[in-house]
Predict the structure of Nitrate reductase subunit beta.
Amino acid sequence: MDVRAQLVMVFNLDKCIGCHACSISCKNIWTDRKGAEYMWWNNVETKPGVGYPKKWEDQKVFKGGWVADGKNLRLRAMGKGGTLLSMFFQPNMPKLEDYYEPFDFDYGNLYGAKEGNDQPVAEVFSQISGEKMAEIKGGPNWDDDLSGSPLYAAEDINLDDRKIIEEYDTMFMQYLPRICNHCLNPACVASCPSRAIYKRGEDGVVLVDQNVCKGWRFCTSACPYKKVYFNWNSGKAEKCIFCFPRTETGQCNACAHSCVGRIRYVGVLLYDAEQVEQALLKPDDQLVEAHRAVILDPRDESIRDAARKNGVSEQWLEAAEKSPVYALVKEFGLALPLHPEFRTMPMAYYIPSLSPVLSTLGDTHELAEHGTFPALEKLRAPIGYLASLLAGGNREVVASVLAKLIALRGYMRGRNLNEPADEAILKGAGLDEAAAGRLYRLFTIGGHDERNIIPPQQREEQDPHTRKGASGFGILKKTGRGR
Ligand code: SF4
Ligand code: SF4
């Protein structure tokens, strides 16, 4: 057993309101500079839709990620020979038009225009060439909130039921926030000929060494989530850094901190690195189970000992034990990996959306056995769609998660209305009262410090004497300032 620790983010899709506060806070801190204008390390897509860059999920086009080839995994686009052949040309890489040409407005003209008969306007110009643009043809959220439009929904590869987009009353919509998944088997790292991308040992964050990167862009092609970007000004690759300067001091990521819907959870998972490869050789529909098997119980003493031998500190073990992420991914099995069939073993997980809770229009409000909410198969977000997005096509996995969420809502609703508590509702979905209490806190009233449990990494933060001190980060921690 090779026990390692990983920082992980979970997103509760039911609670995302598509406000983009996360994207803006990330942009302001990390990519508000030359060459990075078109980059959104955190972006929020409307689903069904084509996303950013357009159609990134379609590996027939982009050839990212890994494929299981008998007893081995291989990068979909490249073997060794393939690497040499494509050294100077990346045929599968998204082009600028697949993202969008970044633009701004010439606001100075509103003040400085010469006197004339017409109202001055702020003309649009390209942030790359500096030239005026006759027309804006795309933006980072060009199809924002437009999943009702067949134009975009029809292009979503997860939506195989065309009837849904033909019949307005069956259409549904949800948001999908995305960051780099800091994968356990990162295709970006494996594809880099310069070894500039690496997964660091202490927390599993995947980073690009800017001094080593030669700008080959294999990483951009190989990442199936298209979360490595090329800075046209510096000629280097760039990507989400999981806000490591913040997490190292025990603060959560800027996107999670600013999240208006409070949909994000950040915490530690312990996993067995020796099991990763074998797990990823499983068929698509067994990959969620394989993911869960790789994650280890942080309360098990033998696992804690193995972790200590690998240098995992007591603070990290304590954080792993309290981890909201462990509860949501493994203990209660509610959070699922995004496109596990890309076989990078992503370390960002998603609780699938029940919303809208309403069933399809025109039906007779067919309710679940115990109650208030619609029966599973009557939910507007079709199980097949969610299974394609989050479970390698396994509908049973998604149905089991949704059944738990419905049971939890039904039970807590009863309790909050002072009706007799019916634990049978929970038992039917594999939960109990203690689980309901914990999940209810996490989903609703749990505060920042329950949703984000991040062990500090800097020595002055880890040392209990310094933490009690009257200066520096000790003060910030005590007062909660700086969070
Ligand atoms: S999401 Fe892409 S860029 Fe991020 S670690 Fe995984 S393969 Fe690499
Ligand atoms: S800030 Fe939170 S609620 Fe708003 S779009 Fe981002 S993830 Fe969704």
Summary: The chain has 24 helices and 15 strands.
